[in-house]
Amino acid sequence: MRTINIPFGRSFQLKVILLLVLSLFFIATLSNYLIYKFSYDAQFNQLRDKLKVIAQTAALFVDADTLAQVPMTKDGVNSQAYKTIAEKLRAIKRVNPPIKYIYTMAKTDKEGIWQFVVDPEPLVNGITSYPGDKFNATRYTEIAKAFFGPAADTKLETDQWGVFLSGYAPIRDKTGKAIAMLGVDVAADDVYAFQKGIKQRGFLVLLLGVFISIFLGMLISKSITNPINELVEGTYHISEGDLRYRVRVRTSDEIGELARSFNQMSENLFDVRKKLLDYFYRIAQSLVRILEAKDQYTRGHSERVADFAEKIAIKMGFPKDKIDLLKEAALLHDIGKIGIKESILNKEGKLTPEEWDTIQKHPIIGEDIIKPVSISEEMLAIVRGHHERYDGGGYPDKINGENINIFTAIVSVADAYDAMTSPRAYRPALTREDSLKQLNINRGSQFHPEVVDTLIEILKTER
To answer: Could you tell me the maximum CA-CA distance found in the chain, to the nearest angstrom?
Structure first.
């Protein structure tokens, strides 16, 4: 199969691969993002719900009356009420390891400003929260909701204690009134670790998607480009004259239809060319007959040579298409004599050296006549070489032995035998026996040995 010399960087296959890979990569990336977003949102919401539950459960263990007794001053940390609530909060923290901080706050008269009541971790990052310390909660929208029910931050929040996700719940008195809020903080490290886990899984999925995209891209591109390459290969064959070439129809889609159309075009071109060649050969054969008709000694010579050549080729076991080509060439083997003067062709006496040189040009003239329309190198070889000798002493190229095309050798023997058994202006016809004797004498010198043996066997059988 012909190699298509197109740089891979500019090939259609690469473009198809890239297009498919980019398409699949985009789909994989989008899907991965959506899955990541969905997974993260779902897990984040689960974490928020968990914080709400922890905060609400913890708030139930805090006695509102005791909490109300904590003095809202720095010395309040020494009160029994503070210590009781602080111990409760530490106990809750111990049974809930994810909790980083737990604390209680109460509202002040100023909008958005809260104050700490009990914070069991009084020293955090060098910062101490005492009862009555103020905290600006204006940007913490979920804290304000804590007096109405459990709430949790919708995103990570940053303050002087660090980055956290917090959950809140109301602390109610015996009448059900919310007097304070309990908050629990989960460190951002835990949330980040959770995000990192999802991202790692997402990256692995994406990486796997890229490899699958490349594999599928190459696989699909081959299914597209291979039929196109076959069509390109077919056009090369057509351009070089091989109208018998057919591409394989693999699919029933548009490319398959294109392949069928290509094969139909090739078949139509082959039929048209065959008709034109047949027309040319008929004309050429008519010219040969006209040439032979002018000389009573050579009349019918080409037909007889073609008949002998066909018999020899059949006996030697050549296929029918080769035999048909051999007959066509044999009928035209002397067409080059059209370019030779009749005075030389029909001369009864001995030819001069100049006249003999002219006669020896007729194989070349014949080749030039049929070359523009011949589809076979073998036919050209037969017309040009039918006067070559097995020992290399022939003309025009003095080739020898097995270098002579076997069909050329067949026509050479058939031509010589018919010439010997036909009368000529310069001699009478030889008998069959004398002709066979001449064939044997020149076997291996002028003629191909196997061809001579085959013709002799045919003649003996016919007799």
So the answer is: 153
Each residue's pLDDT tens digit, 290-306: 766 665 556 788 888 99
Q: Give the pLDDT confidence of 122-157 residue by residue, as tens digits.
A: 665 555 689 999 998 888 888 888 888 999 988 876
Contact 112, 138 (CB under 8 A): yes
Query: What residues have CB less than 8 Å from 424, skipping those under 6 apart?
Result: 297, 298
Q: Report residue 114's pLDDT band, with 50, 70 and 90 as the boundaries.
A: very high
Query: Is-cis flag, bond preceding 150, omega within 30?
Result: no
Give me the DSSP letters along 285-313: HHHHHHHHHT-TTTTTHHHHHHHHHHHHH
Task: State the span(s) of the chain assigned CATH 1.10.3210.10.
Answer: 294-462
Contacts of 73 (CB under 8 A, 6+ apart): 130, 131, 132
Q: Is 219 helix (H, G, I), strand (E, B) or coil?
A: helix
Rounded CA gap, 333 and 370, in Å? 10
> If one looks up domain 294-462 in CATH, what number appears?
1.10.3210.10
Superfamily (CATH H level) for 56-189: PAS domain (3.30.450.20)
User: Are 69 and 81 within 8 A, CB to CB?
Assistant: yes
The pTM assigned to this predicted structure is: 0.49
Check: CB of residue 117 under 8 Å from CB of residue 64.
no
Report the C-alpha gap between 86 and 66 in whole angstroms.
11
CA dihedral over 27, 29, 33, 39, signed as positive or negative: positive
